[in-house]
Amino acid sequence: MLDRESIRSEGKSGFEQNFSLFEENSWLFDENKGDFGKIQLFRSRILFLGQALIIKNQKKEFIMTSLVKKLGLKDFRANLLQIKKKANVDFEWYPYESLNNFTIINDVLKNGKQENFFQELDKNKPILDIGCADGDVAFLFESLGFFVDVIDRPATNFNDLKACKFLKSELNSKINILEYDVDRNLELKQDYGFTFAMGILYHLRNPFYFLNMLCLRSEYVLISTRIASHAPDGTKIKNLSVAYLVGAEELNNDPTNYWIFSLKGIRQLIKRSGFNIVCEHRIGEVDKSTPHIVYEDERYFALLKRIDNYKDIFNHHHF
Predict the structure, then answer these.
(1) Which residues, listed in sequence order, are joined to residue 176 by a DSSP beta bridge?
(2) Which SUPFAM superfamilies does the protein's record reference (predicted)?
(3) Is 0.85 surpassed by the pTM of this model?
(4) Which carries the bigger pLDDT value, residue 67 or residue 5?
(5) Distance separating alpha carbons of residues 140 and 62, to the nearest angstrom
(6) Contact between residue 93 and residue 84 where contact means Cβ atoms under 8 Å apart
(7) Helix (H, G, I), strand (E, B), or coil: what is residue 246?
């Protein structure tokens, strides 16, 4: 099994070896600028080589962390994979295994001595999954006894939410699938005990608004996003409260990428959005990252808890 440093090294090497293939096929982006599904498909096959190496070297098995065991992830995942394997569908499954994130989430929770966090969540309070891909995480938590809502936008979902809807039918699920653009409208209709918002922030034009609105409706939020320790010109920005706005084709040739915060910047955003950081974790090119180069990628994970006076978030300017 590859350790994380090896994964990063192999992923970088694989990207460099295949960059000519990326250049030869870059016309796909020009022809399909409005078709985010095809952009994501191409990007997943050419650029996410590090993730492919993870899956290959794990031999389709989870890293058996304590969290994986507690949530019964191995058996749930095996059942889900079997359903997908047997399915005769006219769409492609999301290529990244969302459930693999729990090996990283395990480290996040350990950093804050929150190993029993999910076991202690109140099952009378629903869970929200924003940017649900095929819905794997949502279906997992429904199987654990939670009521679950998912939010995604068909136009930017990998397969127009077809996979999530298919699995809902196959699993006789009662999850609610809500379709709208969280960058423009996040006026949630109910309160949530916990929200997954992983890999979302840097794809939003308005991350401040997004977190503000989540603060009003969710007691806890788990976020992950790309951050950068250095600007493109090499300037160290880790300890500056800043964010870099990438150009439409500057990162992955993907126009859905926007704000890449520094470490201090993302912490400041969290604080001013009405949350406290319970625990956090960084992976990837830690302290060696940039906002615009694919393999100089640093990821920030954090479990957030909203402040006690969250209802005042829009009533004064002390946030």
Answers:
(1) 149
(2) S-adenosyl-L-methionine-dependent methyltransferases (SSF53335)
(3) no
(4) 67
(5) 15
(6) yes
(7) coil
